[in-house]
């Protein structure tokens, strides 16, 4: 499974017909914003250091890496395995 995931992440979107799919710029900024929104929405008690951590991450955020194919929920249940035990397909239902 790990080798398959590595192969998946090594794909260049344009090389597999996905060059115009998704937003390729600002991934890390969007992730940090999403995590902050999720924390605020699920906030039920103070979380020591959360605001400081968010601020530090925002100040030191690296540039987003080159776009690649990423599976957000990779697990055995999102694969099709052949009789020989090799992964034959990776599924992504949300797509």
Q: In terms of structural class, how would the helical and strand content be classed?
A: mainly alpha
Give start-end ranges of low-pLDDT stretches.
none
Determine the number of helices (DSSP H or I, runs of at least 4 residues): 3
Mean residue pLDDT:
90
Rounded to an integer in angstroms, the radius of gyration calculated over CA atoms is: 17 Å
Largest sheet: 2 strands, antiparallel
Strand order of the largest sheet: 1-2
Proportion of residues in extended strands: 5-15%
Helix content: 25-40%
Order of helices and strands: HHHEE
Query: Overall 3D geometry?
Result: extended
Description:
The protein has 3 helices and 2 strands. The protein has 95 residues and is mostly helical. The protein has a two-stranded antiparallel sheet. The mean pLDDT is 90.
Features of this protein?
95 residues; mainly alpha; two-stranded antiparallel sheet; 3 helices; 37% helix
Describe the secondary-structure layout.
Elements lengths: L1 H9 L16 H15 L8 H11 L18 E3 L5 E4 L5
Antiparallel strand pairs: 1-2
Briefly characterize the structure.
By secondary structure, this protein is mostly helical. It has helices spanning 2-10, 27-41, 50-60, and strands spanning 79-81, 87-90.
């Amino acid at each position: 499974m790990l080798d398959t995931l590595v192969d998946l992440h090594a794909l260049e979107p344009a090389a597999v017909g996905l060059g115009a799919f998704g937003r390729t710029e600002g991934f890390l900024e969007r992730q940090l914003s999403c995590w902050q929104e999720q924390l605020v929405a699920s906030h039920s008690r103070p979380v020591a250091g959360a605001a400081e951590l968010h601020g530090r991450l925002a100040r030191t955020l690296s540039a987003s890496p080159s776009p690649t194919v990423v599976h957000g929920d990779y697990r055995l249940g999102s694969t099709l395995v052949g009789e020989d035990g090799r992964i034959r397909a990776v599924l992504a239902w949300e797509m």
